[in-house]
Fold:
Amino acid sequence: MANQKKEFKLIALDMDGTLLNEKGEISEANWQAIAEAEEKGIHVVLSTGRSRSTSIEFAESLKLSSYLINVNGSEIWDGSGNLVERTILHGDYIQTMWDLTQQHNLAFWAVTSEKIWREDFPADVSAHEWLKFGYDIPDDQLRKQILETLSENKELEITNSSPTNIEVNALGINKAKALMTVCNLLNISMDEVIAMGDSLNDIAMIKEAGCGVAMGNAQDIVKDAADWVTGTNREDGVAQAIRHWVL
Structure:
């Protein structure tokens, strides 16, 4: 459990539904709190389901110099843009997930080391390095059915980044594991980390961090796993938590 007197050396932030507001922007208050934390020498690490290409501009706008955790932990990049680690999802599993997409006419996205696939899909699945496959399924019953089908494969790590989606990574890949790698590289412990998020893909890091913070807009299961609940992503919840625990 979090202790008020703890000295935090790293702030791990989810992006969508956490750092970013409903317009997909970083508020002035969040920007300011992060800048002050950085000035104190605290590492600020974006830990997101997004790919590097859709998150790097935010890291750069915040002038973050530390590591970047992408695709739920499938990739870790250092502050100079060098790849530290990449974990691939087997092509056979991707093919199965693509077949489900076709069968049920599902909205999907898939991330390879080169690009994000949304409308089209490659004919030769094996020619690419796959990092993640995701579905957006507003229909509760259908989502449950797809979830049950995917759960039969014990080699998959299944989470979500919003209540209507499903995100699939290679087994054992999550934001907590990636954060542990980053902590080892920085020579700090997970106890010195404060982690914030709103969805299932944030639970592992919220539980493992010295202080796990759920957003006010987080899914209930995330709030239950957290040490503390902050304001929503519309209320500068990230800034509130940084000011309360770190500054």
Summary: The mean pLDDT is 96.
